Amino acid sequence: MMLKIKEAVDFIKSIYNEKPLVGLILGSGLGSFVHEIKIEKEIPYGDIPHFPVSTVEGHSGRLVFGELGGKKVVAMAGRFHVYEGYTADQVVFPVRVLKFLGIDTLLVSNAAGGVNPAFKVGDLMIITDHISQLAPNPLIGKNFKELGPRFPDMSEPYKKELIHKVKAIAVQKNIPVQEGVYVAVTGPTFETRAEYKMILALGGDAVGMSTVQEVIAAVHMGLPVFAMSVITDLGIHEEEIKITHEEVLQAARDAEPRFKTLICELIAQL
Predict the structure, then answer these.
(1) Cβ–Cβ under 8 Å, residues 191 and 113
(2) Are the CB atoms for 205 and 2 separated by under 8 Å?
(3) Interval 15-38 mean pLDDT
(4) Which fold has domain 2-269?
(5) pTM for this structure?
């Protein structure tokens, strides 16, 4: 594991040797956020040793290095999921590489299904906590002390200081935001009506197929995390409504300008 991380890091540094301070993981439909970055280098995932390759529409599959808000950043334009056939360990491999490239903050986004009845399509939800029991934990297996402890504390997976900053920015910019608990499932099926009801009963406000594994790996390494969901569909409904991936992508694109404003301002304040 550590050798693979080193080989990936060494390869990236041979192409781009600046140290990024902020890492971003861009979820479905949010890939155009990279246009906010003053791009200095782009590296396709397929060129990086041991990197998985994204197979999902809406995930372009490259590392983008550059400057945003006066900070050096690296963005993952496209992420990996267990439903693509990757192990949890492979899903979080890029997060570990970003940490060893030097980032000291990780910002994560995703498209999620709204479970909280008060939510509507297009809402931005600050993730305050998560439930991960429905998806495989990326720390199962041998623990590498170079990454973190065997039993990492998860009492604050999403840094409260970063949450407070974004809430203040949202008030200043007059952008409404929701807050809530994100529940991770494996996918790739969207949830049944009974599953949505279960997730609501468990205390979930939104559900998705990503993010939690990446956050666990980041917290394991002592990396502060801020995460936000774009609510792209609503899960609990009586009408005969079917959800498609195309509709999810479009809803994320529609919400992207507000998302960009919040994240760009947060990076400027870091």
Answers:
(1) yes
(2) no
(3) 90
(4) Rossmann fold (3.40.50)
(5) 0.93
